[in-house]
């Protein structure tokens, strides 16, 4: 697909949204047609593990054939933390498509996506204040990010999370509280990612593809275990 071929399509023909999530052993793909958002949502998960490099394009095409990619109006991708190779592959794909299409790309950490879902374990008082999501890793310490719940205005999901501190490796001896352990639910989180993408699209928010980068809180090795 070339930029010249893509540029022949007018803005009125860009009506599809695509979300990709590969921060765990499961790939999540979600698609929305802005012309009929209530009825057009499609999503699926693929437990392909380390086979992502060979299966990514085929999995995406199950929901959105390559012939429809020129009609993408906006993309979103989970930026991790997660497996080095898996996260990098979907981020690179999303960045490439956004660059070639000249459309916005939303990069959201996997911790920020799960934060509203995990926050139900907090007390009502704790939900009003910042909280942490942590992920202990064997022999590598603990990765943590800090979040604050936010009620949506007129657009987007009813509840979102503002990322106050990007997921990072905690220094030895540092403890954070209140802390919730990261728990993957790619099926829910990729749809939440698509909701955020749709809200940003309706509001006309810019999302430079250059700012969507994979998160590697530690050395570039698999963080899944």
User: Strand fraction band?
Assistant: 25-35%
CATH arch. level architecture of the largest domain: 2-Layer Sandwich
Give the helices and strands as they follow along the chain: HEEHEHEHEHEEEEH
Strand order of the largest sheet: 3-2-1-4-5
Report the principal-axis shape.
Answer: globular
Task: Note the main sheet.
Answer: 5 strands, mixed
Q: Would you tell me which CATH topology of the largest domain applies?
A: Nucleotidyltransferase, domain 5
Q: Count of helices?
A: 6
The first-level CATH class name of the largest domain: Alpha Beta
Structural class: alpha/beta
End-to-end gap: 37 Å
SSE layout:
Blueprint (H helix, E strand, L loop, with lengths): L2 H5 L8 E6 L5 E7 L3 H4 L1 E5 L5 H12 L8 E7 L5 H18 L2 E5 L1 H9 L12 E7 L3 E11 L7 E11 L9 E3 L4 H18 L22
Parallel strand pairs: 1-4, 4-5, 6-9
Antiparallel strand pairs: 1-2, 2-3, 6-7, 7-8
Provide a brief overview of the structure.
The chain has helices at residues 3-7, 37-40, 52-63, 84-101, 110-118, 186-203, and strands at residues 16-21, 27-33, 42-46, 72-78, 104-108, 131-137, 141-151, 159-169, 179-181.
